[in-house]
Structure formats: structure tokens, C-alpha cells
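Shipment paperwork, digital attachment
Item: protein structure file
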Amino acid sequence: TAAAAADFNASSSRANLNSSQTIPRPEKASSVTNTAGFACLELQFSALTDSVLLQGKLERTLEKRVGRQFGPIGRKRLIVCLENVNMPLQDKYGSQSAIALLRQHMDHGFWYDRQKLTAKEIVDIQYIAVMNPDAGVKFINDRLAQKFFTIGMGFPATYQVQDLFTTLLRGAWSHTKARGDVMAVADTCIT
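Attachment content:
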């Protein structure tokens, strides 16, 4: 699987990473949301996701700040979790309008108001995007991919999973002062 995250605002762009098909859920980030000035939004991409739908969902979480600048409600930073970012269908030209909207924001820091046809500067949004290699388009647009730090990795071998969970189990049991015979069972519990 491949995963990526990118942080964008009006003055800077930098990349972060999350390498898993299953991304951190916003409910798990709720403690961060309340204490650190963050808000979370999870968006599932599908074959029907287009730029109109994506822009509408993102704009529901924004408020006007100064001039034509918009940001998350309450002056927070918004973490947008985009699952299956490779799922939107390609049109006959090979483009995906939802991906084009993301690129518009990442490249230029704004998108256009669909009614007034004026630019809206969008600030304080961080994107975390995940691709499912078994569904949708196998590759995303190179112009979008260059904005992300991307890692692809396969599932670990059985012995690696066993070593990992055995180590975790032994560590958990060692804090409970488990007897030696109970500790010996750790190797046989994980198969």
C-alpha cells in the first residue's frame, strides 16, 4: 500500500508521512482536536467523487477570515483524511476532477468559488491521503504525487509478525510481574 500526507498553508508546504492503508481515525485524534487546536475531517473517495462533491465537503468546514481568505472554523488547523484517493474515475482525457482540485489548492493555495467565480485562499489545512492498490486507478497523477512523501510496502512475513507480537506480549506481561511459566507461553500464543 502507499500512503502520504502533505501540509499546506499560504506561506509554506512540507510533507509528512503515514504509511498504512488504515489511517488514524479522527475519533482517535479527538484528544489532539480538543487540546492542540486541530479539527479532523475524514473523506472517503469513491468512483463517484468529483471536484464539486469534494469542494462542497471541504467548504462546510471553513469560515471566512480576512478578505478572500478562508480557514477551518474556530481558527483551528484542519486535518483532512482522504481514504482511497486513487478511486475517482478518470474522464476520457485521463484526468480526475477531485485530484485536480487538490492539486489546485496545493499548487496555488486557493480554489475558485463556484458561484462568484472568484479565488478563495484556503489556509491551515493538512492532507493525509491513502491509496488502496487493489482498487481504483493504480497510479495517481504525477503532479499530485510530487506533493507527497510516498512509501509503498508489502505485508511483513509471518515470522516477522510473530516476532513483533511475541515481543509486545512479553513486554506487557513483564510489567505485571508474570511468573516464568506464563512468560514461556508467550512464544506459543502467537502463531
